[in-house]
Amino acid sequence: MPHPDVLDKLVSLAKRRGFVFQSSEIYGGAGSVWDYGPLGVELKNNIKARWWNAMVRQRDDVEGLDAAILMHPRVWEASGHVAGFTDPLVDCKACKARFRADKLQDAQCPRKPSKRPGEHADCQLTEPRQFNLMFKTFMGPVEDSASVVYLRPETAQGIFVNFLNVQQATRQKVPFGIAQIGKAFRNEITPGNFTFRTREFEQMEMQFFVEPGTDMAWFEKWKAWRREWHLGLGLDDDRLQFHQHDERELAHYARAAFDIEFDFGGSLGFQEIEGVHNRSDFDLTQHQKFSGKRLEYVDQAANKRYVPYVIETSVGADRVTLAALVNAYREEAVAGEQEGRTVLRLHPAIAPITAGVFPLTRKDGQPDMAERLAADLRKRFPVFYDDAGAIGRRYRRQDEAGTPFGITIDGDSTTNDDVTIRFRDDLRQIRVASGQVADVIADYLASDKPTAEVPRT
Ligand code: ATP
After folding, report:
1. Which residues contact 44 (CB under 8 A, 6 or more apart)?
2. Is the CB of residue 13 less than 8 Å from the CB of residue 400?
3. Which of 52, 56, 85, 412 is such that its CA lies 20 to 30 A from the CA of 144?
4. How far is residue 353's CA from residue 401's CA, in Å, rounded to a whole number?
5. pLDDT band at 457 (very low <50, low <70, confident <90, very high)
6. pLDDT (tens digit, 9 = 90+) per residue, 149-169?
7. What are the pLDDT digits (tens) for 183-215?
């Protein structure tokens, strides 16, 4: 069964609950730029931290980096972006809309009835012309061609130009990698689908430097590791697939490239969330040529020097965040209740709020006990305290935010010093001594399984 299209519903939930807002909304919005609200920033930060942990902290062969967005303009000549980071663009002289020539099949003419560009009788599409996707600005007070700089369209080049700096500072030996998370900017012609394709986004990239000849073996390893990572994030196995770049898609310098695709459901279907690329020695060789500086690795033990090959893993933090939301979104009937619920079944470890704490009533010392417990839990993870309204409604609000645990303090709690933990996914409830709540929840957070599947007595 194809997965349903939940994007429109997510856009509305995201705004209502504070995951994502349109940028500059009170001015009518800025084109395809989005702001993360209180829940969204927690979710995206959790995903970035999980990537950093898996890629840098848990490995002794990958180092971290945080390179600047602005770089020397020659970087982008060397990388090929000035000459070749273009999309073919067609204009329609009748409706003035612009489309990517290679995506006309997926595009819509803005006029009604809805048709593809070129399909209305009076559509007048121009011949395709190349449109560079880099944002330009000026460095310093003079706005002339000599002071042009670019907002980086990818983070990778910051890693390449620092290859020897990092290698020498850390005394890493090839094979080793450099990873970073940072903003990238692309003046996309046809952005859209919420945060799927935006003009400002965050990438999580890692370049792994290897000896030529060992590259394909490393490529296969990274492909498998990266798929595992997405599964660990909670993305469903049947929603992930590899797409191999064929001759036409493959960049001229690339020896192999696979996209990891996620099924966003509806008409969007499977789309790239991450690229795993074997970039050969292209980038370092280009930077050697353009900078005049040697970027070779000296293997002293084997008494040889060479320009390493690079295996790249490049994933969009925003796109994975969107995938996690789409994957988690459910509208469910609830047994014994008329009203259904909307729930985000996010992996507990990435949920923006870990636990909701609810005194059943505002009397008999329940709020005091609940506030004390909330303060205690807050030392370990994000907690939301809520004492207003019917308990069912309070649960529903947290279901919608993806909060995996609801802790209720009732009439017995103050006497017995215990509380109920309600599980978001299967609505199970267990009774736990209040001093144990933090440890019970920590167990779930450390697990790779959704809460419903973790056996607990
Ligand atoms: P696409 O074909 O979708 O334009 P790409 O092949 O140009 O993507 P890469 O250059 O390989 O993408 O970038 C690596 C990752 O960065 C992508 O897998 C995606 O997750 C993310 N990404 C790229 N462009 C955007 C964008 N405009 N908005 C959000 N994320 C993006």
Report:
1. 36, 202, 317, 318, 321
2. yes
3. 85
4. 8
5. very low
6. 999 999 999 999 999 999 999
7. 999 999 877 799 999 999 999 999 999 999 999
Rg, C-alpha atoms of the chain: 25
Do 386 and 358 contact (CB within 8 A), yes or no? yes
How far does the centroid of ligand 1 lie from the alpha carbon of residue 197, in Å? 7
CA dihedral over 15, 19, 20, 26, signed as positive or negative? positive
CA 97 – CA 94 distance, rounded (Å): 8
Q: Whose CA is closest to atom 29 on ligand 1?
A: 197
| Chain length of the chain | 457
Q: What are phi and psi of 52, to 5 degrees?
A: -60, -40
**CA separation for the pair 179, 155 (Å, rounded):** 10
Using CA atoms, how far apart are residues 263 and 1, in angstroms rounded to an integer?
12
Helix and strand totals (H; E) in the chain: 13, 23
Nearest CA to ligand 1 atom 12: 275
Rounded distance, CA 422 to CA 408, Å?
8
CA of 317 to the centre of ligand 1 (A): 10
Q: Where does residue 427 fall: left (phi above 0), alpha (psi -120 to 50 degrees), or beta otherwise? A: left
Tokens of 131: 């449109």
Question: In angstroms, what is the span from residue 420 Cα to ligand 1's centroid?
Answer: 44
Distance 316 CA to ligand 1 centre (A): 6
Nearest-atom index, ligand 1, CA of 188? 27
Nearest CA-CA partner of 284 in 297, 271, 273:
297
Q: Which atom of ligand 1 is nearest to the CA of 186?
A: 27
Say how far apart CA 309 and CA 303 lie, in whole Å: 18
**266 CA distance to ligand 1 centroid (A)?**
20
Residue ranges around ligand 1 (CB below 6 Å):
154, 186, 188, 197-198, 201, 203, 272-275, 314-316, 318-319
Ligand 1 atom 1, closest CA: 272
How many angstroms separate the alpha carbon of residue 88 from the centre of ligand 1?
16
Contacts 24+ apart (CB under 8 A), 390-396: 391/358, 391/360, 392/337, 394/356, 394/358, 395/356, 395/358, 395/422, 396/341, 396/342
Residue 389's CB: how many other CB atoms inside 10 A? 11
- Largest Cα–Cα separation, the chain: 78
Angle at 348 between CA 343 and CA 349, to 5 degrees: 140
Q: Which residue's alpha carbon is nearest to atom 4 within ligand 1?
A: 197
